[in-house]
Amino acid sequence: MRITKHPEERKQEILETALGLFEEKGIQKTSMNDIAETMGVAKGLIYYYFRSKEELVEAVVESFSEGVEKEIKMLLSTEGLSFHRRLGQVVKVFFLSIQEHPALMSITPKNPGLFELVKTSLSELALRHAKVLLQKGVEEGYLNLQYPEYMLKILIHGIADLYVEGVVDPKVHCTLIEEALGLSTGTLLKEF
After folding, report:
1. Are 21 and 34 within 8 A, CB to CB?
2. Assign residue 182 a region: left if phi > 0, alpha if psi is -120 to 50, beta otherwise?
3. CA–CA dist 91, 75 (Å, integer)
4. What average pLDDT is seen over the chain?
5. Which CATH code, of 1.10.357, 2.60.40, 3.90.550, 3.10.450, is assigned to 54-191?
6. CA neighbor of 103 nearest in space, from 29, 14, 11, 192
7. pLDDT: which is higher, 62 or 104
8. CA 77 vs CA 80, 84, 136, 165: distances in Å
9. Is 166 exposed, middle or buried (0-12, 13-18, 19+ CB in 10 A)?
10. Number of helices followed by number of strands (H, E) in the chain
11. Residue partners of 4: CB distance under 8 A and separation at least 6
12. Residues with Cβ < 8 Å from 182, sequence gap 6 or more?
């Protein structure tokens, strides 16, 4: 008997399987056929939802970003967290998400655009949510920034560039964020 799944459920299953295989084999070495075989379905089903591997990779990145955003929104809406704790937790979510999915952060000569896609997606996400958090920090007197939005852009893009250069230690990034925002040393690292 043939099992029919709801289209959104099937699409999510494809995305999760693809991400798992990307992590296991690498994006370049994972084919649409590998995904279909792992799921036990015909390759045509994968192509029904995604016209190409590139489209599937973009959807995996989008799904990844949506998951990170969901965690960030939950943190930002949690009652009772201090400004410093909330900021530290947000930074932690970004770093753990990146560390847990190294295949999405890999740069390969055949596909340098993948890293740029992930970097842009996460940077936009960080700008959107951290902007609100920094503005609140200024309003509540935790931060003394004349231009919080510009400082945020410098921090996010600078951290992303450092990551590309191989600086992946969260301690370094947390220290730089603390120094740039005028926070006490170790404020953000408490969350790691």
Report:
1. yes
2. left
3. 11
4. 88
5. 1.10.357
6. 29
7. 62
8. 9, 14, 13, 33
9. exposed
10. 8, 0
11. none
12. 143, 144, 145
| Closest residue by Cα to residue 53 from 24, 68, 33 | 33
| CATH architecture for the domain at 1-51 | Orthogonal Bundle (1.10)
pLDDT tens for residues 28-75? 889 999 999 999 999 999 999 999 998 999 899 899 889 999 999 998
Other beta carbons less than 10 A from residue 66's beta carbon: 11
- Measure the CA–CA gap between 143 and 122, rounded to whole angstroms: 24
- 147-163 pLDDT, tens digit each: 988 999 999 989 988 88
- Closest to 13 in 3D by CA, of 59, 75, 52, 58: 59
Please report, as a single letter, which amino acid is at residue 42. A
Of 166, 65, 169, nearest to 107 by C-alpha is: 166
Q: Tokens for 99?
A: 């560390």
13-41 per-residue burial string, b: 16 or more CB within 10 A, e: under 16 = ebbebbbebbeeeebeebebebbbeebeb
Q: Where are the domains of the chain?
A: 1-51, 54-191
Among left, alpha and beta (phi > 0; psi -120 to 50; other), residue 58 is alpha
Q: Residue 144, Cα to own-chain centre: how many angstroms?
A: 28
